[in-house]
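It would be a great kindness if you could assist me with a short task in structural biology. Thank you for your consideration; the sequence and its tokens are set out here.
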Amino acid sequence: MDKRVVITGMGIISPLGNDVNTFWKNLLAGVCGIEYIDDFPTDSLPVRIAGKIKDFHPEEYGMDKPFIRKQDLFTQYGMAAAYQAMNDAGLQSQGENANIDPFRLGVYVGSGIGGFATQYRETAKMIEDPSGQWISPLFIPTMISNIAAGQIAITHHAQGPCVDVVTACATSTNAIGEAYRAIRHGYADAIIAGGTENATIPLGIAGFANAKALSRAEDPKYASLPFNGNRAGFVMGDGAAILILEELEHAKARGAKIYGEMTGYGNTCDAYHATAPRPDGTTQAQAIKIALEEAGFNPEKDNLYINAHGTGTRLNDAAETKAYKVALGDFAYKAHISSIKSMTGHMFGAAGAAEAITTILTLREGIVPPTINLDTPDPECDLDYTPNKAVKAKITLGISDSFGFGGHDACVAFRNYKD
């Protein structure tokens, strides 16, 4: 018999705040976390704005100075979000207060790119001196994308399954989905799941801009425009988001608080193009259908919230709108939909987990966060994208979808927990 999976802890480092409460408060207020980049020169770059992390102090999350010096920011962000989530869940795998077998605690934390800043810095050294003598001996174990998961596992003594999912923009949605399946099928009692990213570096901006993916807007507060007729590309964002997924009976036995229940996961591939989404939305719709069916979606009874991928690119938003119509038929017009990327920018490997947290809080609090700056609706995007202001709604089922370069489509579903 499949086991039930609940959410017992959450943590986040984001352009809208470095804890879940601040993040949620700013989402509901429609605060835009996108600003001018000020931590490296941008005069010669085509893009000068991003959703950067502010006031981040890694020592506040249990990291000491030697560790901080050795780790790329993507690992530090992931560690900080995991520290919050584990403390929130009250889980411990060692010591006199241990409440989970370390072999039953896993880590599914991914990154779309990994230690990008480290790779950029060490590559510059190699170009300067091809002998390689100045390359850090820590280069490889700091740059590889699985190191955030590894360091989180070391810190929390998690000796169960440890997997680094890498599916571009769908990374942390897939990580959460695969963690859900691992617990549901009995391979773990709890998993630290999510994603982390620090890709806003000069090379990242140049690469994405030259791929014609980024908005070149000059005004940071009117740059990320999901579903807007004026949209012209996404805005880069950094951060990390982590959820603690736990088997229901294990959570109940230790008296854990429960934020909600994960009830579905769909996973498909466009098999179409390296960067462009399948334009008719059919493969994206299939991932959504699988998650909805597993979650027991009933159009006669459910009030649905969709946290959209909503990047603000011309192709994605049009294809995504079609996907909702293919998956839901006329019910698509009844769903509450929003894209928080209008406020955070695109957090890449962390985006899906940040949006999963948003979905869970939307269910729990009965408030749908807005898609800000939606002042010029696109006729191709004609659904209810919750323009500009949060809306109160009693949501019974929430889904969050992500679509990544390479055609990766993922969708996760949640409900409020009922015994």
The CA atoms of residues 325 and 332 lie 5 Å apart.
